[in-house]
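During the first year of the project, the team set up a workflow for recording each protein of interest as an amino acid sequence followed immediately by a discrete structure-token representation. This format lets reviewers and collaborators read both layers of information side by side without switching files. As required by the reporting guidelines, we include two representative entries from the current panel. The first entry is reproduced here exactly as it appears in our internal archive.
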Amino acid sequence: MKKRKVIIRTGKVIPNTSMENYLQNCILPLAYILLENGYKVVFQTNVKTTDFDSIAFRLQNRRGPFHILGMLFDELQIAFHTLFTKDQVLILNMNQLLPNILCAKNTIMIIHDIMPLEYPAHWPLLHKYYKYYLGPLLKRCRAIISVSNTTKRKLQEFYNLKEDKIITIYNGIKFSIKEEDVTTKMNVEEAFIYIGADLPNKNLRLLTDVFAELDERYSLNMISGCCNNKDVTAAAAINSNIKLMGYISEEELKQQYLNCKALVYPSFSEGFGLPLIEAMWYGKTIIVADKDYAREVCEDYPAIYFENNKQLKNAIVMSQEYSANLDLVKVRKDLTSKFSWDKARQSIFNVLDNIMK
């Protein structure tokens, strides 16, 4: 009987990113579940995985042409380990930037978003990869895992994929009911907050334009990579109510949530939208763009939706008097039920196991 082997490809994982979070909370624990169920597990990654066999991850300094060379070299290595073995092999790609069209029929691809298709000017080279390479690869894959139904619908729309080929498996959240007393009282509300990267889908210009029109009663703390955006830095330089916090620790982030008046989230598009879930956990007011991703994540939570600058400005002003009267115990139970790393790991294992039977 053939040995069942799963090759897990992570690509280059950068510390303190969403991909490292996904690796640590989902993929690595999944690898141990596979071992416990008799699978052989092999990693191709730049992260040290002492309990597993590995395939060398070459050309780690991948910039410009070296990025393309590295991707081609990876594909050849994976083809060698897949085609010239007596094992029954399945490949799990942790994200969509891991080409292996030679072995696509033995691949499960996890898709987190398809932003380069939506914003070609920001990602001109990646746009070509998504448009001309990723589509044919996905059509040949054994299965596709999407982190949201919104991303699933976009995959169907852009690549004309069959609905039953794509399985939605939500990411988990880092909180648990046991971790923190659900009766925790929130601190004195101070500022509105925004958390996100410097990317075109984040709609940062709208955010700073609106707060520039408001007085000192409405201050905005901007957190994470968004502080590198030139429009954001320019707005902060001339508007004292816009404050750049940059990258902060987990404890500092927790305090920002506890102290904030509301989370303001103007993104045009998201693969998942983690800050929305974090704000819900703390029972905070959410002011968010009226987009599919927001409706999916927030679902029954009483978020305030807006469609343009005027509506956003009105929502910010009106939120001063807004009270949702939330049952925080129920909110947190619903969140941990819907967005569970345990559930995500088990669901991915079930997909793998059903294919390998």
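The second entry, processed by the same pipeline in the following quarter, appears below.
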Amino acid sequence: MAAQEKREVAPAPGAIRPASSPPRPHSSPSGPTTSPDLDASAVPDGGFEAWLVVAGSIVVLFYTWGIINSFGVFQTYYRTDLLRTSSSSDISWIGSLQGALPAMGGVFTGPLYDAGYFRGLIIVGNVLVVLGMFMTSLCTQYWQIILAQGVCVGVGCGIMFLPSAAVVSQWFAKRRGLALGVQSIGSPIAGILLPIMFGRLQPQIGFGWATRAIAFLMLALSVIPITSMKTRVPRAAKRRAFFDKSILTDLPFLLFVAQMFCTYLGMYVPFFYVQLYSVKMGISSTEFSPYLVTILNAGSIFGRVVPNYFADRFGPIQMLIFTTFASAVLIFSWIGIKNLPGLIVFCILYGFFSGGITSGTLAAMVPYVPNLERLGTRMGTFFFAMGVSVLIGTPIGGAILGNGNEASWKGLIAYGGATLLAGDVLLVVSFILHRKGEKGVDGVR
């Protein structure tokens, strides 16, 4: 009877539907980054164990993307001293390889994470990163540094980066954006500490021992993630394929992947080249120039937390659209900066908004995942595409830079801004199609 029928009450935006409700293909992009296949009451969303996992993930980000964000000091040292006969483009391949492998490795570590091998991945990744840094301290030739810092460190980062990020999503639902933002501050903290550490130690004790000091620091910190991080959700009942075929028919997700490919082509241009730019253009002394990388990463600390806090309120995709657009505008403004105060302000602001891109990427991707059991696999595919972008992005910039005259610097900067702007346009289109899909599903109910 009509009077006795129960009227379905629509959940609040972004809320997780109970198990008895038909699952939605995607969670709402306008609400918190939760997934429809988990019961909100079962997710701790805080507490000692949950934040302990975040603490371990902070350390992993410290010596994965943290060492990548610090590569500007290595780029400058290699270009002006150890590898002075190599071009800027050749040297940037070291940092690009180191930055690409953490993302590209996700296509393999994602399914392994889903299959329950989380702890093994964390241990093996830690060993390789520490070993790679110790081996880098012994290097004197380009090919040696490629193998040690590029491949060994990069592979180690690739093994543990995705699992360390994905496991946080098991412990948080409504506050997931904030947790992922806090987790990501490990990267800029390293970006602040390591350039200063290397810049102060290298002139006094040499490249070898300065690099070994960083390796010893990483060795000590590795105890934290190995002992504090654990999964909450049981391993998948059956092993999943390394590639989720449903991605091929999911146009909004494909566009989301395409926009991040474009964005990461140019996003790291300032991190790799701002220090060299300040020296070559006579804006800063060689003694102060490493602090520009530090300032970039200092701004990034706030950029990784503040936008993610608002993402939980206004939507992760919307916040990513805003931070990407702001970053593109800032890179274009870099063309007109000819003095140190202006360059410092640029580093602070760009660090903030690019930090919002880095920390907001995962939170913005979760609404595109129809089932959290496939989160690792979809993250793997997504990060593989992003890794290819990071791999080729800065070497392309180095090739544009060429001999480093003023026109070449303008070309490099324009390249960075244009790639971010193109990525933002694709993100807007992806968001619109995603919302239409959401409304279409609701209309069928």
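For the second entry, the following points were noted during internal review. Residues 406-444 form the longest helix (39 residues). DSSP finds 17 helices and no strands in the chain. Both points are flagged for discussion at the upcoming steering committee meeting.
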